[in-house]
Specification:
By secondary structure, the chain is mostly helical. It contains 17 helices and no strands.
Length: about 450
């Protein structure tokens, strides 16, 4: 391996490891959080889970904005444009305050109605509404953690956000024990613990943002920059639309499986949750890939861009292949941990072993999202993923359930084909040169060719 490629590989690994660890720990703590609330009974679990889809959609707004923030700051870092970095840092502060206040106010106003809209039973609506209100009150701090964290990662510092999120998640777990069980606050205690952890993460991320050598300045330009904000929104809006389309697709997909019976739906739901831990590491590599692609674009270095793509794809596919082997081997024992029903465990293990073979394709899809996000070409991800979700997964699952009356294995096959199709569609521009000009217009500018 040439020295430059070896250096890129090391950089990619160093950027990815903190984010991978962060994703894994966050998921494990979510499992613990769910289990602790679950000990309070079915009503408590329902009170927390009934608004989760709405909470996910709300969180997707700052998450989408973070894609634009990373793309623009990383590009400025690559070009060495300190003034543009400072300008975008100032715009990030405005995005944190603006989106946090608007989203928080909307959530507070709608909190009494959301459980009703989500079909919650009357006896849990009060608890569900209170839980949703409390966890969305510190929305400015939640957006601070997401957007300031994105800005810091764009400067090739992934360690600091990891440490901050480690601290916040650890605090959340500790406060859950204290407030849920120690002070017997139940669902309200779980909400307060989550809100406090969001606040801590937001405050610490703001401090880290202010201390970052590339982002700080004596006085950041806080006046709205219409050109920069427009560029950021152009990148971010398709990401948000992708999240909405996928979220609605998952809701419809789950509702279709519900029609197949309680046992089948239980196996499906538990298998979906069990699989999560085996692919989240791919999202860590996506974040690192996005940053390095943005920097290479700012440097106008076509060869570096190509090397980042190749190395990222190779690393992710290999890692997800290992993950798939582990998932296949652990499918049976893993399902037994989550359910005492032998039939649910058996059926869940069958579909988990099926999906294990597609993990490398799922990883390929994830890392290609990072490539597109780094380039700012987010519309391509929206069209590809929306078409596959609704044209493959939802369409054929509907046919399987309502027309062909097939089993859960066939339904999961529809999901697997969807993921494989997404990966292939997103990879097409790298495989066929004639498509690159249309799908990668940002790379068609006169970039320097450098030896790798």
């Amino acid at each position: 391996m040439p020295d430059r490629k070896r250096s890129l590989f090391a950089t990619l690994v160093l950027l990815a490891i903190p984010t991978v660890l962060e994703e894994i720990l966050s998921t494990l703590l979510q499992y613990v959080d769910t289990a602790m609330v679950g000990q309070l009974g079915e009503n408590a679990t329902a009170s927390v889970s009934v608004t989760q889809t709405v909470s996910w959609l709300i969180g997707s707004i700052p998450a989408a904005l973070s894609v634009g923030v990373i793309a623009l700051i990383a590009r400025a870092v690559g070009s060495g444009d300190g003034e543009r970095i400072r300008k975008m840092a100032g715009q990030t502060v405005l995005l944190v305050l603006g989106s946090g206040v608007v989203i928080g106010a909307a959530c507070a106003a709608l909190s009494p109605f959301i459980p009703v809209w989500m079909g919650a039973a009357e006896d849990i609506r009060s608890d569900a509404s209170r839980y949703f209100l409390i966890v969305t009150m510190p929305m400015v701090f939640r957006t601070s953690a997401i957007l300031f964290g994105a800005a810091i990662r764009a400067t090739a510092d992934t360690k600091t956000p990891m440490l901050i999120n480690f601290a916040a998640n650890g605090l959340n777990a500790g406060l859950n024990w204290l407030l849920i069980y120690g002070l017997s606050l139940g669902v309200t205690g779980a909400a307060i613990a989550t809100a406090i952890s969001y606040t801590l993460a937001g405050v610490l991320m703001a401090v880290a943002f202010r201390r970052n050598a590339l982002l700080r300045g004596k006085l950041l330009p806080f006046k709205p920059d219409k050109a920069l904000l427009k560029e950021c929104f152009t990148i971010s809006v398709p990401v948000l639309l992708t999240s909405v389309a996928n979220c609605l697709g998952h809701v419809v997909f789950a509702s279709l499986v519900t029609n197949m019976g309680t046992t089948v739906f239980a196996a499906h739901s538990i298998a979906i949750s069990a699989e999560t831990l085996f692919y989240i590491a791919g999202y860590g590599l996506r974040s690192a890939t996005q940053t390095l692609v943005g920097i290479s674009l700012g440097e106008r270095d076509r060869a570096k861009f190509a090397s980042v793509c190749r190395l990222s794809v190779l690393m992710t596919v290999l890692m997800m292949a290992v993950s798939g082997v582990a998932l296949y081997a652990a499918a049976g024992p893993l399902m037994s941990v989550f359910t005492s029903s032998a039939e649910v465990a058996r059926l869940g293990a069958v579909v988990l072993r099926m999906v294990a073979f597609s993990e490398p394709f799922f990883g390929l899809m994830i890392v290609m999202e990072g490539v597109y996000y780094g380039l700012g070409q987010t519309r391509n991800v929206f069209w590809s993923e929306t078409a596959c979700m609704w044209g493959i997964r939802i369409l054929f699952t509907s046919l399987c359930v309502h027309v062909w009356h097939t089993d859960l294995e066939t339904v999961w096959l529809c999901m697997i084909i969807d993921n494989v199709a997404r990966a292939l569609l997103l990879c097409a521009p790298l495989a066929f040169r004639k498509f690159r000009a249309g799908l990668f217009p940002a790379v068609q500018k006169p970039l320097e060719e450098k030896a790798v």
